[in-house]
Amino acid sequence: MAGRLAVIGSGLMGSGIAQVSAQAGWQVTMRDVDDASLDRGMSAIRDSLNRFAAKGKIAETDVEATLARINPTTDLDAAADADIVVEAIYEKVEAKHEVFKALDKICKPGAILGTNTSAIPITQIATVTSRPESVVGIHFFSPVPMMKLVELVRGYQTSDETLAAARNYAEEVGKTCVEVKRDVAGFVSNRLFSAILVEAIKLVESGVVSAADLDTVMKLGFGHAMGPLATVDLTGLDVMLNAAGNIYRDTADEKFFPPELLQRMVQAGDLGRKTGKGFYSY
Ligand SMILES: NC(=O)c1ccc[n+]([C@@H]2O[C@H](COP(=O)([O-])OP(=O)(O)OC[C@H]3O[C@@H](n4cnc5c(N)ncnc54)[C@H](O)[C@@H]3O)[C@@H](O)[C@H]2O)c1
DSSP letter string over 81-147? Predict the structure, then answer.
């Protein structure tokens, strides 16, 4: 049964999570650090809902009804009555620790404290709370309104009840869950994708193949809907540099070491679609 959700962060992922939850009838509080970020998040949700309505996938009246269930705020205390929190701020452990320390004080007993982190261990995030059994990875994929998968990630101390509540929530908002049984860096999705991406970038960087041809191999040879380089342009090169870097630090496994080309592109500001240029131009 739909309940109360607090989403922390109103960026690409946070706004998508707020949208699908509100569409499923949840009352959503969406928190960001300033009004400009919240306005961008709310506009992204409105645009996405309008596109669904234009295609006839939802009724016109659902657009305003869904938006009315989302309360944008800069006040973290608004998470106090949430049944479930999903944190979706920058992929920086210090920033996430600050948020979880505060949530531990603010949230009601028994609230599920979820994180949408791509690659930071859930156990490490949970250490700053007094209730690590309630902390769980609820890992959505981008764009959230379109992608069906959620990885549910067990931290070292996550309880069965927490995992079950997170599953109920994710299924209620229309997602299919897979359970990641141990808290390995990168979980299953980013372990697989980082390994493929690092090898793909090395092949391009060493002149073996062009970016477009590499993607064509994965599409036409292996039936992928998108190649890895078009995918990283969508996800953000900075996000994947962080993710692969985190996995490398945790495992010391060379196959995750971010290639020079990826590091330079991020330093130069070519982050993919969001900056107009990555492996392709937009
Ligand atoms: N981009 C992806 O495809 C993707 C996919 C899965 C998971 N993730 C993960 O989701 C998280 C968010 O990624 P994103 O792409 O949405 O980032 P983003 O940069 O689009 O959004 C982050 C938002 O968090 C806000 N923020 C920063 N500190 C905050 C705080 N203390 N309280 C509230 N808001 C705060 C920022 O103002 C910004 O609006 C990251 O952990 C990322 O690794 C990203």
Answer: G-SEEEE---S-HHHHHHHHHHHHHHSPTT-EEEE--SSS-HHHHHTTSS-GGGEEEEEE-SSTTT-
